[in-house]
Amino acid sequence: MNSHVENVTTVTTHAPAVRHAAPAGLGGLLTDFWARSSIGLCLSDDRGIIVAANSAFASTVGYAVQELSGMHLMRLFAAEASVRGTVEHAAFIAGEDSATAETIYLHKSGRPLFAHAADTRVQTPDGRFYRLTTLVDLSRRVGGVQQLRQNQQAENFTALASEIGNDFNNLLSIILGYTAFLQDGTLDVSRLNTAINGIDHAVRRAANLIRQTLHLSRRDELCFQRIAVGEFVKEFFRMAGDALTPGINVSIDLSSDLPPVSLDPQQFHHVLANLGQKVRDLTGAGGRIACTTRQVDGVHVRTKFSGAREPSYVLLTIQAEPHAASFVEGERPGTWDAAVRFAERRRDLAVLVVHSIMDSHRGHLEIDTWSGPALVFRLYLPAITESNNMVEPPAVMVPPVSPSERIVLLVDDEETLLQALSFLLTRHGFTVIKARDGVEAVDEFVRHAERIALVVIDLGLPRMSGWEAFLKIKEHSPQVNAVIMSGHLEANLKTEILRAGAKGYLQKPFAMSEALAEVNRFFKAKA
């Protein structure tokens, strides 16, 4: 549930004292209100440390009042959100009222709270600023229409989750099948390689499935670039055509005089891959795919999509045609019927992903099953003008590290991954110190701070989150080199991590070669 930020309030209380249920100096009446209020109240200092919380707040988040005193406020957020939360908290204390507007709190059990939060900045006579958070549990106050909406959302989510779960079960079955082959000591090298390649392919498909589901919530970070659509599409089919559209005739007739568009190349690659797979399945062997482009006026696009606001668009049309042999006079080909059923499916993951990506690019997707002869996708992408040109963020510069300092602190609570990464780094000449939670990570770093050249740490750790552990390590050694790993995709997560002082980022799932390349960046010899 989103937060709401109130205006700044100046109070004439004494500075709050840690480990008190109510801030000292409030006076009898206010102290009684603090203790008896059914509204959750929490006061945190400029560092984000909770200095006071009432019983209603503690009850809502599932902690005892004594547990909250001295705890970092970020521990009440999801691991991936605590990164952004640290930045937002500092901005709020500095005077940016809307900085904490999107805060979502977690219960101690880990479930997100259906609650309304509001933040007020208060100042004490000594000039210090605090964040006063009020938290209202809405789960006990909402019924009727809201409950109906939640039930509908739950039904849609359940149906989509069932389809995703089915795909995952298929992939896991493939992996388990090939794993059984690997346990057969009589296999020759050729068959072993076949099993390994099969597992690798299944894992990559599973990783793509995860990315698709995360695209739907728009939780992945966008990295826009100035792109010529025609050249991008040509290169895509040149590189992926043989694998994506085998046995299909691909015709590309793209205009060369179109204005550029602003795209995230990786995401638009997902768009073409998802649509290409659907078109391939619907056309069948011997079919034809035709790609064309042209520029269209924004007024025309608004007749189709009320949310279209750009003055001009680049239209990419992907038309699928089944083989001529599938046509029967007076009847539509079977692939056409399949296209209609496909377009009418509300929970097709590939199409939902494309809609989500197009929306994040301020574009639009039109699916036409009636222009024939099978299926037409029309993608409307905003053309770049002087007013909407998007600037890429500057690259993060990483200072070189002496090659003699090859000690890495590796932190992850997933034992198998920890051992795999440790084996990888050790095999390539690194000395690895392992830790399995945030508390252990901080202890190991403090013990070996003078020797550790790089910290590779996961965000989601027990006892203390990876982000809180990183902040404590950074407080001990401000110049620490750290690479943050995460299986979450939160909007702008990578950017916020780098801004906060981390030197690198690894998005799970990653290949071992990617992890090694990221670590090696910090151990290049000085020129």
What is the straight-line distance between the termini?
Answer: 51 Å
Low-confidence parts: 1-21, 151-156, 388-403
Taking the sheet with the most strands, its summary is: 6 strands, mixed
| CATH level-4 homologous superfamily of the largest domain | Histidine kinase-like ATPase, C-terminal domain
CATH architecture of the largest domain: 2-Layer Sandwich
Please tally the β strands and state the result.
Answer: 18
Strand content: 15-25%
Radius of gyration: 27 Å
Question: What share of the residues lie within helices?
Answer: 40-55%
**CATH-defined fold name of the largest domain:** Heat Shock Protein 90
Structure description:
It contains 16 helices and 18 strands. It is of the alpha/beta class. It folds into four domains: 3-137, Beta-Lactamase, CATH 3.30.450.20; 145-216, Helix Hairpins, CATH 1.10.287; 225-382, 2-Layer Sandwich (Heat Shock Protein 90); 407-523, Response regulator (Rossmann fold). The strands form four sheets. Strands 1, 2, 3, 4, 5 and 6 form a six-stranded mixed sheet that branches. A five-stranded mixed sheet has the order 8-10-11-13-12. A five-stranded parallel sheet has the order 15-14-16-17-18, with helices on both faces.
